[in-house]
Amino acid sequence: MFHGDLPLDIASGLKVLRDRIQAARIPSSKLDETLNIATWNVRELGKVRRSEAAIHYIAEIMGQFDLVSLVELRDDLTDLGRVLKILGPYWRVVYSDMMPDPGGNRERLAFVYDHRAVTFTGLAASVNPPRKKSGSEYVPEFTWWRMPYMASFSSGNFDFVVIVAHIRWGDKDADRLPEIRSLAEWVDLKRRQDTAEDKDILVMGDFNIPSRKGALFDAITSKGLSIPRALQKLEFGSDLAKGKRYDQILHYAAYPDNFTNLGGVLDFYQGDSQPLFPGLGKDKFTFQLSDHLPLWMQMNTDIDGARLDQIIRARSMRRPR
Fold first, then answer.
1. Distance from C-alpha of 257 to C-alpha of 267, rounded to nearest angstrom
2. Per residue in 273-311, pLDDT tens?
3. Where are the domains of the chain?
4. What is the pLDDT of residue 186?
5. How far apart are CA 69 and CA 294, in angstroms?
6. Exposure of 272 by Cβ count < 10 A (0-12 exposed, 13-18 middle, 19+ buried)?
7. CATH class assigned to 8-318
C-alpha cells in the first residue's frame, strides 16, 4: 500500500479503519493456493469527487483482497485512478462502459485485481442476452437496466469466469424479479455452451435481494446457482445496519472444495462514522465510503488434488470386474 506522508487526521482514521478490518478476520491469501475475492457497491464512485481521506480508506479496504468486483462505479474514473495509485503498481482494472440514460445511471461495473495473485485471461464483455428474429431484425428476449459484466481470470491452476451485476431497485421488490430471473437463465445458458470459456462461474454483485427467503432469492437460485458454504453460515447482511442481503456471491463450481469455509462481511462502519470522518453524518458518510459493506470469501486455487481424485475415480470405474 502506498499511502505516503499522511496528515494527522487521515493517519488516525486509517489506524481506526485497520482495527475494524482486523475484526473481520480476513485471512491472508497464499500465492497459487488461495485467493481472497470480494464484491463491493462503492456508492456512486466518481459522481462527486471523494475527499483525500475517503480515497485512502477505500484503497485500504480494497487492498485486503486480491480480486474485487465494483458496483456503482460511475463514468468519471478519476477517483478510481486515485485509489489505484495508492494500491500500487501491481493493481489492474477491467471495467465496462457506462449507460448514459436514467436507467443506466451512468454506471460502470469493474474488476480490480492484484495481478501478482490473479491474472486476467482475455474475456471482458457485457452480457449479451439471447435474441429472437422478429421480421428482419434480431431482438433481445430480455434485458437489464444495467447490463451485467463478465471477465475471465486465472489463479494458481484454477481458471474461472466472474459475472457482476447491479439489479434495478424499482418501486417495489416485484420490479426486480424479471431482471433477476433473466440473469439466472442467462448464466445457466452460458455454462451449458460447448465453447464456454470456463465452466467455473462466479456470479456476484448487488442484486437488491433483501433476504434469502422469498421470490427474489428463489429466482436467482432457480437454475442451480448456490451460496458457497462459507457464506451460508453468515448471520448478517452487507448494508450498514447488516440486516439486508442485497449483495451476494454465488457459484456453479466444478470443484466445490474450491470454496473454503472462510468468508464474511468487512464492517468498516461499526455503527459510528465519527472516527473516520469527524463531524460527518451517516448519509454524507455513505457518499464518502459507501452504504454497502464488502462481502468476501476465500477460494482455494490449487486444484491438483481434486483433479487427481477425478482421474482416479474415472479410471477405477472403467476397470473390468
1. 27
2. 999 999 999 999 999 999 999 999 999 998 666 555 555
3. 8-318
4. 95
5. 10
6. exposed
7. alpha beta
